[in-house]
Amino acid sequence: MSEKDNINVTILGSGTCVPSLIRSSCSVFVKIGQSKILIDSGAGTMHRLLETGTTIFDITHIFYSHFHPDHSSELVQFIFSNKYSGSVERKIPLTITAGDGFKNFYNGLKAVFGQWIEFAPGMMNIFELNITGPDSIGFNDFKIKSIPMKHTSESLAFRITGPNGKSMVYSGDTDINDNLVELSTGTDLLICESAFPDDLKTQGHMTPSLAGTVALKAGVGKLVLTHLYPECDGVDIAKECRKIYSGPLAIAEDLMEIVI
Predict the structure, then answer these.
(1) Do 75 and 109 contact (CB within 8 A), yes or no?
(2) CA count, 13 A, side-chain hemisphere, 49
(3) Is residue 100 within 8 Å of residue 130, measured between CB atoms?
(4) Cβ-contact 16, 25 below 8 angstroms
(5) 51-80 pLDDT, tens per residue?
(6) Are 176 and 209 in contact (CB under 8 A)?
(7) How far apart are the first and last CA of the chain?
(8) Mean confidence (pLDDT) of the chain
(9) What's the pTM?
């Protein structure tokens, strides 16, 4: 396999809903072949994307783990910005994929913003994934598998597999569950939420040691802890994770790059 078959991952947003000068809200940028993918698009996504040298017009796919604002808020601005008719414009359709219910979510946004968040006919495709069990879709450069998570009714984790057979998993927001272990088994990279330190465990979210438990059970190649609330500042969350997991580990930062 050549370098063009690599999965190139950039953490665009490693933070949460809490405003921060160093951590944007949740988003990951993935390049595989000719595909340029966003997973979630919380506040700050487009700014960080520009810092990678990529424009909104280059994005071919967006996947949403769930509909909370810190994961989806820049969808409105993303579509609206695509309507700007300057020297550069969108030449390829945008594909948006999320859990069942996304079309209703998008229609609700259109009820507020109307034509300003509508693409020309044929320039946007929407796919909805099963939220009660595993699902999968194949695209030109990659295939994606989803499985329900423990957060909201539509919450999904995603596993992206490229042409080189390598894969990455994005947990989205979730509490610990067997589905995440199943989806992550043998993956090369697990980008896992670790919202709060171990002694501040919150329902619907993971902690460093819980993320380490998933990584250990799944036998992942590398674990990246992300979706970090300010409570994680000043706490050695890597050390907390190391109580369980001894494999390759990184604490996410905005614009961190990983090549699989």
Answers:
(1) yes
(2) 26
(3) yes
(4) yes
(5) 999 999 999 999 999 999 999 999 999 999
(6) no
(7) 12
(8) 96
(9) 0.96
